[in-house]
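Lab notebook page, bench 4
Experiment: in silico fold of construct C2
Operator: M.H.
Input chain length: 420 residues
Purpose: comparison with the prior construct
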Amino acid sequence: MKYALPFAYATVCSIILLSAACGDNPAEAHYNKGVAYEAAGEYRLAIQEYDKAIELDPNFADAYTSRGLAYDNLGELHRAIEDYDKAIELDSNSARAYNNRGHSYYLLEEFRRAIADYDEAIELNPTSSLYYNNRGHAYHLLGEYNRAVEDYDKAIELNPDWHWPYTNKGAIHLALNENLRAIEMSSLAIKRDPNQTAAYFNRGIAYEKLGDNFLAIVDFDRAVELDPDSSSPYIRRGNFYYRVAEYGKAIKDYDKAIELDPTSSSPRIASARYYRDRADGYLFETRKAIENYDKAIWDDPSNADAYNSRGHAYHQLGEYEKAIWDFDKAIELSPDTVSAYRNRGNSYKELGDFQRAIGDYDKAIELVPTSFAAYFGRGLVFGGMGDHHRAIDDLNKALTLAQHPTHRADVEEVLSALQQ
């Protein structure tokens, strides 16, 4: 299996905007009503109140900034920028206005202009972890990872209890294939906010790239649990199931994503439809293969190869208990079938039964001491158990036995992560 992802990493919506303050005159009274409406997500009503505040006081810079924020939340980015421009014209020392305008440019994917505004915000308020985090995210999306990490580190220094810089820094480690560091940063984010959906996804992808699908799916499940009404978590978990050839589960997740967003023409939903159709094709082929193995077993109940092959098909469908039953039967009929032990070890690994998995890989290696797949599988299990020394020993052995370039690349990727 090649550890390439349809998405390099999971997307982090981490840019945060600021609302402002208050007063007692009529303009400020309308302004405060606007802030309350905005906090409740009633952006049109908020804009009406800000309009009244500005009509009463055309030089009310904060009202322009907050109205810009409301337009921002409605996706009317150019109108938002017009308001931020006016706010800055009235008050060139408003770090909040520069930050929020930077956010609008960020959403328009004008990252250099966003960074210029974040620079101004930081110069005006160099103690704001928010501004460093936002600038770091803009550098991040430009691929300037070193600058992004510097900003995330500064944000953490200024506010070590805030989860977003840890999440974002974890995403960079993930993009650089530094998977253990990605897990570390994502875990720190989750410690600070146990409801951090993006951190669970980032950590899940890192576990997957290390070959620990059991821990990966635990994190993906948690992310879906935290955000069940959004299509994105289902698509991301569906992508995981697709990558590990669990096509039935992938289809369920893609179907749920499409159900939640049926009229969307976004690239993400289009991708879900595409991979759903491909998964359906693979599922049909696997089910047809199982039917053929059923017939072979009916014709010859002592056919160990048919049980072994049917077990492998069930494994691909994620039906691990059925797969193990077939591997048991294959081993009973032919105790020296090395692939049956190896395959059963893979199914036990997916169920998190690591000791039984190791026992099967041990037996496969005893039967065929040059089995690349058995050393690789056992190495992944040791890695998942946190026994990195034995994992590295097995993976190095697998590397010496690998004959196919793809197999070598897979082992080298996991070894690189474990050795960090």
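Observations: The chain has 22 helices and no strands. The domain at 1-125 is CATH 1.25.40.10 (Serine Threonine Protein Phosphatase 5, Tetratricopeptide repeat).
Next step: discuss at group meeting.
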